[in-house]
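Q: Please design a sequence for this.
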């Protein structure tokens, strides 16, 4: 992180620590045991990719139990705590899992029959500022754990979050290990050092803004901005406007996606998206436009920057991130609770991308995806909060874009989740 950014962040955190404007979370601590929580999520997962043009299909079917045990904070000016997160899994039946991120593989390419991963963490809290060290599942726009597979991606390091000023949340962290969802090695991505920093500010109930930065050593520097505004129209309808953008500069040692330059010292990309969502009762309709600029496509996951660090609307099976690509989306969502089936939700979307540059081939490649997802969550009884999610993507690309990205694919994902609370 540049010295100027370090200094700015330090000033902000110090100001927050001495300028608290609302109640302290630590002052309400009940104790290490009294505030503890524990739960397990049993997940049965199925992922199938039906590849076209003679490419081998990939399928995986497995069962896991994801556990989290989290203590409360001890009482006092500074509170201390600890926790454990992890998963234990086994495959179901035969698996052809290459390339879908579901199940770890032995050196000979065969799938593991059973495996376990995870780690612990310690934490401390002063006022409304919390620092934790150990294993994390990250939800930061520039460094996000992949949670779209059977089990999540883990990062190891230190993370600090401060909410000393009402409406303002500051984040800073440093991570030195990155473990993908289908890896046994706790540093399977061979992360050297990833430093993150950022701030989110809620002006009022309608307007929220945020900025986050990432410095992944010898890989890339990335910056993210977002503004989200909600406009009420009447009692049960409204509009939501959202603007998001990433700017990335790659180091010479980094890998990049869909590059059209041979100058390894000057690879950069800016991708931005604007969406408008209309909500009325149980219905919502979203229109989104996304555009990529620079001499390479947006890249994530191959430079120790998190396999889900793309907080943009046009992201399903494809993320529509090709070099110079423009894409547009129409999405519709309905909550069937108003129609007598509480807990049932359906989302459908169509995204079309065009003007994709493929080096030495074309400036006008295209891709498109038709997406559907149905999710049902049990609302009461012994199975309360259990859910079944069925997702399907129909993806097609022009001939020039087949080798450079996903390739024509029909994908199914089915997740059966059963959460159990210990205490």
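A: Design:
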């Amino acid at each position: 992180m540049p010295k100027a950014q370090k200094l700015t962040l330090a000033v902000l955190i110090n100001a927050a620590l001495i300028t608290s404007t609302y109640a302290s979370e630590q002052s309400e601590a009940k104790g290490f045991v009294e505030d503890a929580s524990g739960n397990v999520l049993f997940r049965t997962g199925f992922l199938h990719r039906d590849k076209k043009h003679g490419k081998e299909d990939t399928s995986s079917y497995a069962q896991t139990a994801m556990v989290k045990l989290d203590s409360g904070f001890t009482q006092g000016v500074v509170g201390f705590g600890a926790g454990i997160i992890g998963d234990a899994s086994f495959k179901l039946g035969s698996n052809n899992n290459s390339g879908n991120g579901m199940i770890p593989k032995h050196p000979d390419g065969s799938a593991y029959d059973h495996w376990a991963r995870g780690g612990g963490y310690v934490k401390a809290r002063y006022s409304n500022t919390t620092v934790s060290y150990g294993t994390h599942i990250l939800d930061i726009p520039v460094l996000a754990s992949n949670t779209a597979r059977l089990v999540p991606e883990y990062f190891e390091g230190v993370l600090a979050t401060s909410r000393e000023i009402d409406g303002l949340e500051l984040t800073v962290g440093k991570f030195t290990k990155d473990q993908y969802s289908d890896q046994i090695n706790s540093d399977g991505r061979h992360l050297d050092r990833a430093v993150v920093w950022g701030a989110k500010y809620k002006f009022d109930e309608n307007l929220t803004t945020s900025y986050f930065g990432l410095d992944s050593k010898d890989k890339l520097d990335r910056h993210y901005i977002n503004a989200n505004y909600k406009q009420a129209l009447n009692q049960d309808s409204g509009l939501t406007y959202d603007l998001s953008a990433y700017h990335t500069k790659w180091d010479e040692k980094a890998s990049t996606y869909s590059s059209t330059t041979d100058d390894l010292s000057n690879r950069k990309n800016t991708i931005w998206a604007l969406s408008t969502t209309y909500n009325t009762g149980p219905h919502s309709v979203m229109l989104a436009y996304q555009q990529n600029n620079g001499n390479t496509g947006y890249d994530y996951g191959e430079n120790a920057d998190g396999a889900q660090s793309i907080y943009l609307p046009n992201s399903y099976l494809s993320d529509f991130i090709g070099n110079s690509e423009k894409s547009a989306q129409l999405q519709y969502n309905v909550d069937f609770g108003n129609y007598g089936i509480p807990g049932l939700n359906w989302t459908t979307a169509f995204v079309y991308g065009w003007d994709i540059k493929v080096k030495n081939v074309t400036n006008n490649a295209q891709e498109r995806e038709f997406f559907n997802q149905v999710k049902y969550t049990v609302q009461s009884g012994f199975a309360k909060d259990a859910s079944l999610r069925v997702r399907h993507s129909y993806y097609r690309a022009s001939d020039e874009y087949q080798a450079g990205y996903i390739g024509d694919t029909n994908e199914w994902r089915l997740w059966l989740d059963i959460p159990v609370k210990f205490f």
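Q: Thanks. Anything notable?
A: Residues 15-21 have pLDDT under 50 and may be disordered. The longest strand covers residues 362-377.
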